[in-house]
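Aim 2 progress update. The chain analyzed this quarter is reproduced below.
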Amino acid sequence: MRLALFTGFVLAGIASFGSDAVAQQSNTISAEVIQTQPVEMGRRSPVQLRLTNKKTGAPITLDQLDVVHTKPVHLLIADPSLEDYHHVHPTEAANDGDYLFIMKPNTECGYRVWVDVTPTGEDQQYATADVPGVKDCKGAKINKTTVTEWEGHGYSYKIEFDKPLQAGENSMAKLTVRSENGRLFYGLEPVLGAYAHMVGFYDDYKNIAHIHPMGDEPESAEDRGGPYLEFHIRPEQAGFMKLYAQFYMNGRDHFVPFAVNVKD
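Predicted structure tokens:
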């Protein structure tokens, strides 16, 4: 078993929709949820997603996508309040370009899906689609309280920045994981080819930042990481950002919510 005591992160990309014309022009894939029934709170709900080429309308199949962090398609899903986050990976459905995934919502709201893919020979890109819920919660109030420490599932987490986050400026951040007795935790298990992942959602409900790890990655399922994780972040816009860090410990995923404000 290999033990990694330090892991770094780099801001892999930010997806912009709506006001960012350049991002829209460079995006070659479109996404659509094919759903007749709304997803229901507390129930495992199947959702079908269709990916097509924006210009030709041709279906996008798995053989046209690169595998990134062990998966060709990452679905980053959040409700309008940014309080309920899911990271799932679909399977191919019967028709080319159609994908199926299961989600268990913790709200009655609809959800937005950011489809994170890298077409072969192209850069990483995102497409969005909305999943209908029992309620239309668009414009829901977002709690913008800053959160840099969180406890749950028998662990505590703390994120620290070397300086206040500012749009267009580079910053470094360190995340520390401890067990419930307060001791530094060295048992982070591999998750999608890394020791952690992080996604940031802006309060405009359009833009996101998907942060991938850099530095040493696990070479086997027995490797362990922690207790410190460091990443470099360069926010592309000012405003509130909800950050979700994803870990895997004791055979289960742990999603940790942080919240920060980015200065103009």
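Residues 5-25 have pLDDT under 50 and may be disordered. The radius of gyration is 18 Å. These observations will guide the mutagenesis experiments scheduled for the next reporting period.
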